[in-house]
Amino acid sequence: MLVMEATARAHSNIALIKYWGKRNEALVLPYNSSLSITLNELYSDTTVRFDASLKSDVFMLNGQPATEREQGRVSEFLNHVRQLGNVSCHAAVNSQNQVLTAQGMASSASGFAALACAATAALGLQMNAQSLSRLARLGSGSACRSIYGGFVEWTKGVRSDGLDSHATPIACEDHWDLRILFTITSTSEKQVSSREGMRRTSNTSAFYGEWLATVDRDLKEAKHSVIHREFNRLGQVAEANALKMHATMLTANPPFWYWNETTIRVMNQIQSLRDTGIPAYFTMDAGSNVAVLCEPESVQAVRTHLETIPGVQKVVECRPGPKPTLLKGATKV
Length: 333
Ligand code: PMV
What we know:
Elements: E1 3-17, E2 22-24, E3 29-30, E4 34-51, E5 58-61, E6 64-65, H1 68-85, E7 91-97, H2 107-122, H3 129-139, E8 151-155, E9 166-171, E10 179-184, H4 194-204, H5 208-227, H6 231-250, H7 261-275, E11 280-283, E12 290-294, H8 299-307, E13 314-318, E14 325-332
Parallel strand pairs: 5-7
Antiparallel strand pairs: 1-4, 1-14, 2-3, 4-7, 4-8, 5-6, 8-9, 10-12, 10-13, 11-12
């Protein structure tokens, strides 16, 4: 009986310039390019075992059988890998997240990046980082950025087959000692998935056109700020870009938002801290949790303030993190 197994760790990322909207849903091709920081403390460890004796794919997430929807997404992704490896057998996937699942903590990014690395390694496929990035993108758009460490850009590409839509590294994790304070305001599952949120927004929001008209400028500004380590410039454009993305949701039909009361309190607190001379900026993905950007010299003060906000459950301090690693190579039994 043939069994092929591998385990990989991939880190999550936080977008400073957001990916929001797909020009091709099946191939996960975005309308706009985006930029993120890979995070050292938030990651997924995923083991994939292709096993000829399995009757169907099995997906365990954090020690529990995953929901039907999650199983479906993983199976669909494994079909791409099976096609690449020219195999037909099913797989057992076991994934452990050091990231909250489905609450704007980018668990799909680390999850699908780890799955792409582990599944291809299990089959012994020789993939370079660019091909892995394209493959991870098919699971979840933001996952394509988690194939690299440090500061990463996902170039949207223009081709209809998606070959030019993948991430590229801008600067490695040692380039800049930034701190990202992940501020958890809720652990319950969000009501609107990012997939549905993007679809609804790009189809119905009157602001979506403005989002697309200005996001390239934001990206250029963010990239320049990263390369030259200009903290305030980066913080300002990242915060503005996040608010702009969230504004497209408020103006969708029907409208929706991911924020809760604590999210708003955190945003208020960060703006007040800036008024007192402590430089810090916020950004939120499709969820209620907030990522606060700051520099090492102010991280303790910012953290203390965040921890005293009513409703804040936990603050996780991150730095720019590494690219994925293979924890256990392919074994054939
Ligand atoms: O990768 P997805 O399908 O979970 O979409 C992620 C979208 C945002 O997190 C809101 C933005 C981003 O660029 O990560």
